[in-house]
Amino acid sequence: MSDRGIAERWGRESVSYREFESAARDLLETDDRFRAARAEWETFFTTSHGDVFADADVARPRDDLFVSALYYDFVVDRCIAFAEREFDFRLANPEPRANTDALSFSFRELHRRVTEAADVPDPAADLTADDLRSADTGFLRTLYEGVVPREIRLALGEYYTPRGVAELAVEALDVDDLASATFLDPGCGSGVFAAVCIDRKMSAMAGAPPEEIVENVASSVVGIDLNPVAVKSTKLNYLLSLSPVLEDADAESVELPVFLTDALGLSRDDDLSLAGEAFDPSADYLVGNPPWIPWSRLSEDVKARWRGTYADELDLLPHGGTDARLGHANDDVSLPFVWVCVHRYLTEGGAASFVLKRDVMKGPAGRLLRTLTVGDRPLALDHVHDFNRLRPFGEQVGANAAVYALRADADHSFPIDATSWTAGDAAPDFATAETIRATLDAESTGIVPVDDDTTSAWIREGAERGALGDCDHDIRHGVKDDAQAVFSIDREELADLEPELVYPYLKSRHVVKYGLFGHELRLVPLRKANEDNEAQLREQYPKTYDYLRSNRDALERRSSSWLEKGPFYNVFGLGEYTWSEYKVAWCRLGFKPHFAVVSTVEDDDLGEKQVVPGDHFMFVSTDSEREAHFLCGLLNSAVYQRSLRTVASEGKASLSKTVVSKLNLPEWDGTETQRRLADLSMQAHDIVPEHTDTSKRAYNRKSIPELEAVQAEIDRLVADQFVGEP
After folding, report:
1. How would you classify residue 223: left for phi > 0, otherwise alpha for psi between -120 and 50, otherwise beta?
2. Cα(584)–Cα(592) distance, integer angstroms
3. pLDDT in tens, 621-638
4. How far apart are CA 117 and CA 111, in angstroms?
5. Model-wide pTM > 0.70
């Protein structure tokens, strides 16, 4: 059945929905048992999902979601009943609450009360057995999206996965013995991952008696979810996948291992049962698309349970100090969800394959993944399917995804094998793995960390080559005077000099990424090197001239040939570029690729005054604030930082003009992307001063989530727009 056919028959605009909705809303006004069920359902949802209704742009969102969920369950339930009749079996546990007793009321009883109150057409009235046989996993996704408003779906963190993405995820597990393997999807949604696992198991068991296949599958492919309609969806998808053998199997009833409970055991921790016995959902393989619910949506009670139950044991708090609040370091629950499920359910040496945001390779929320450890269990990341900017969840969902395939209890190594998927000539089609391969272009690549710390941003192997190229900017040397004892000014000496010629001066210890960590004072008696301004200095700045003349012997003993010309107090590395309004500055010595835009600072004695980079510095000068920040964003990005590691010399001047000139630093054209990068660099420069009220050593040990989030966006923007890295 086409998407349009599903919408017309069962969607929100259908007669069936309108009749059901009208009767259900009337019952909410008049029927105490109906209202009690809704109240219990709402408590269940807010306890597990947080206040998902607060920001939903829907009138009466609580009633809307309850009625929509009840109607969706009604349609699915009627499809299950039709399948039972056609294939001559009975589903032993059709209710979402079966096997856990998570809710006290029966959905079927609520359906009955609605249909008794109104003439609701039977959704399965004109179904055929062929309809069931031909239905794919997209059927339920289309139905759900046609019934539940998008705003509420997103509030629930529900990004239902196209089957093709699920197929790639399961393939990435590289299962040795499919027939004996056990699978668990701990956030099963519509059941697409379960359906893919079932299909693969059935193919591996081809030729076995149908009863044996049903028994094997119904004990080894497990689903858990906290949304009742997700549990019901998975059960129907389960049956649709089993339909080829259900028709021939001599099975009066089938009980499916799909459970309504909290896979994390936080909001509830039910005892699971199957066939009347306790059931252990531990599995050889974990698969799925975890909920992407923002931390801010969770109740304070659930957040406290996260902290008290798993935060320390699994090291879910990669930040220290006050930034270590769970939910501050991670933008949503998806990655910690995976970590807890690996901890709770994955057997020794097992593997997991999950759909997560692709930004976890770079951003602060992904640091947990990049530790490659769950508690004391090492992980190996075997493969990544990176969908770049393709948006497999649909254009209306602003989330970019990747599939991460992991092995537990194994040592990791780099590069990580990856497949980079990009748009081809045809419109992208995520319906199956086959259509993905037919409509998208795939490139095999590797992923490596930016530096020796695996928790640093990960980028594509070889991506640094994209940052190499022509530098369209002049790189200048900081001021060199070879007489620190003369030109370095203590504040007590300011009274004996004209302050107009004393400037804030930068040494290597003063610069961090995107900011300054103090400054010294320096006498700069010229506007440019070799300038003959002795007469002017004598007349306009007599105290300064007398001070310099009193140190003439020391100044004339300087050995640098650069200083042989000009007045006896000459300096090198001084010109119009020194006095440009904005400069991107960095220390050239050692390997500290920390770039910052410098302009003026507010000094206690000098007031607001222009900064002068010192001898250890190189810089690019510009009179455009945005141009300077654009260049700074490029240079501080993960790709450019890795490029610097590959081209930096091992000598003293690791970040010299020669080295940095090898980078592709384009001219400022004011494009939208360049402006965005400049804006991000300016945001970063606004954040850093808020955290410099400590020692630099303490600052370097500190994690600043706000800054890391901006850095992650810079990394993504540079990788995507400037060097084409996926």
Report:
1. beta
2. 14
3. 998 999 999 999 999 998
4. 10
5. yes
